[in-house]
Design a protein that fits this description.
two-stranded antiparallel ribbon; 5-stranded antiparallel sheet; globular; binds zinc ion; binds ligand K1U
């Protein structure tokens, strides 16, 4: 097990469309396990492979509450196949630390994905899990939550990001 380095905006790997996973081998299992460990340590409720510099369609999500049993979802080649309703909730991103904004998302989603044994599954998600599925699948398509902001809010984000980066550099 290993903690992986999380890439920050504007790392170019975060803008790439990730490649489908075709090899369901031990190295995929190791990557999924390391990503889960990295997500729990951050802490976060999701993590996509491009965030750790690997441009592959793999993501891990766990939206269970602290006092609940862990409910780790490892999704390979996930796709949203149906969506319903709308919501507007605050999001953060481990690749854009210290910045939060409300984003328009679908309220419920149906996601088709493969597991580490190449078996296909279908889940219906709502609440935080639905938001996390959309946030993580966006990462696989090279989209960050700040890309959903209006042009005005995006330009305010860029100004604020310069200050956040200075603050992060001071902390190092
Ligand atoms: O992909 C990422 O950057 C992780 C991100 C995903 C996310 C999903 C849904 C809403 C917002 C963000 C995070 O996990 S940010 C951290 C976070 O939301 C959180 C951390 C600890 C407890 C609860 C939430
Ligand atoms: Zn993110």
């Amino acid at each position: 097990m290993a903690l992986l380095k999380i890439r920050h905006y504007p790392d170019p790997v975060l803008k790439k469309v990730a490649a489908p996973v075709t090899e369901f081998d031990e190295s995929l299992r190791q990557l999924a396990s390391d990503m889960a460990e990295t997500m729990y340590a951050a802490p976060g409720v999701g993590l996509a492979a491009p965030q750790v510099g690997i441009s592959k369609r793999l993501t891990v999500i766990d939206c269970s509450a602290r006092d609940e049993e862990a409910q780790l979802l490892i999704m390979v080649n996930p796709e949203i196949i149906a969506e319903e309703g709308e919501c507007f909730e605050e999001e953060g991103c481990l690749s854009v630390p210290e910045y939060y904004a409300r984003v328009n998302r679908s309220e419920k989603v149906k996601v088709r994905f493969q597991d580490l044994d190449e078996q296909t599954h279908l889940i219906e998600a709502d609440g935080l899990t639905a938001i996390a599925c959309q946030h993580e699948i966006d990462h696989l398509d090279g989209i960050l939550f700040v890309d959903h902001l209006s042009p005005l809010k995006r330009s305010l984000f860029r100004k604020k990001w310069k200050k956040i980066q200075e603050h992060l550099t001071e902390q190092m």
